[in-house]
Write a structure and sequence with these properties.
This protein has five helices and twelve strands. By secondary structure, the chain is α+β, with helices and mostly antiparallel strands. It has a single domain (3-217), classed as OB fold (Dihydrolipoamide Acetyltransferase, E2P) (Beta Barrel), CATH 2.40.50.
Length: 224
């Protein structure tokens, strides 16, 4: 991953594959491992992760938890590192998929190979604020989801809800393990920092702050 790509992601730690590998190698009862497995995942706020269907044996559920330390981005940083900035609405959250063809390898081997579950979100675009595209829809990809008895979560990825109105800073996926998988898509600049929920009372909200939409919009410049 190049320095430019690291800057766009806004994350100090190396890519998800390395996170998985380090977590797997350091996992112990006393460690603060990046990767962890639990028997019963918490789905209460995981809006971009499908809950298991009734035919899944919940006693055998495993969760891969990915954590990271984010470089703090200013509004200017988000604007400068984004390939496009949009206002739109969450139209559809697609079923999660694996980034590679699955085999009958053990859960441990899946982790070692850096296999990822990702979820694509279809955004209906109302307005392009930077670098307008011809399409009235874009696909945004996040790492995470539930397939069978395996759930993958990430505390640095933004969550999405159906019909949610959002302002998103986006760039073309450059991560080697997901960029060429599936359809053309974007990822969120700065991870959770680059997604704002827009409220009816003129606020732009993300987990760490709330600002006025006018203030946020004033920082966005339509430049390459």
């Amino acid at each position: 991953m190049t320095l430019r790509n690291n800057a766009k992601y806004g994350v100090i730690l190396v890519g998800v594959l390395s996170l998985l590998m380090v977590g797997f190698l350091t996992l112990s009862d006393s460690s603060q491992a990046i990767l962890k497995t639990v028997e019963q995942p918490d789905y209460s706020e995981a809006t971009n992760i499908d809950k298991p269907s009734n035919n899944v044996d919940t006693d055998k559920l495993r969760t891969i938890g990915i954590s990271g330390s984010l470089e703090e981005y200013t509004y200017d940083d988000l604007n400068n590192h984004a390939d496009t900035v949009i206002i739109g609405k969450v139209k559809e959250i697609l079923p999660p998929k694996w980034n590679t063809e699955q085999t009958n390898k053990s859960f441990t081997e899946k982790i070692k190979r850096g296999e990822l579950i990702y979820t694509d979100i279809i955004i209906s675009v109302d307005t392009y604020l930077k670098n307008p595209l011809s399409s009235n829809e874009v696909t945004v990809r996040v790492v995470g989801g539930t397939i069978g008895n395996i759930t993958m979560t990430s505390d640095i990825e933004p969550n999405f809800k159906p019909d949610e109105k959002v302002l998103l800073y986006l760039f073309n996926d450059t991560y080697p393990y997901t960029k060429d998988v599936g359809s053309e898509h974007f990822v969120v600049t700065g991870y959770v920092q680059g997604k704002f929920k827009l409220t009816d009372d003129g606020k732009a909200v993300r987990p760490d702050e709330t600002v006025s939409q006018d203030e946020l919009l004033s920082t966005i410049k339509d430049v390459a």
